[in-house]
Amino acid sequence: MIKRASGILTADFPRAKVVFNTATRMPYILNGTASEIWDLCERPKSAKWLIKYLRRGYGVNAGRAKRDVAGFIKELRGRGLLG
Description:
This protein is of the alpha+beta class.
C-alpha cells in the first residue's frame, strides 16, 4: 500500500505542488498529474488502484500507467515522501 509519509508539508500552486520533507529538509516539485496522485495517497492506495485511476482519468494504456505509477512510487519513496 502506498501512503504519504509523515512530516511532509505541502504548498499548492496553479499547475504544481511543492512537497517538503521536514526530516531531510528537501523540497520536491510535483506536476499536475503527480499532484493529483499525491492527494489521492492521503489514505493508503494500492499501485493497482492508482494504475486504474490513471487509465480511466487520463485515457492512457496499461503499460504507460504502470510505468508512470512505478516511477512515481520509486522517486517519491527514494526522497522519503511515501511510506
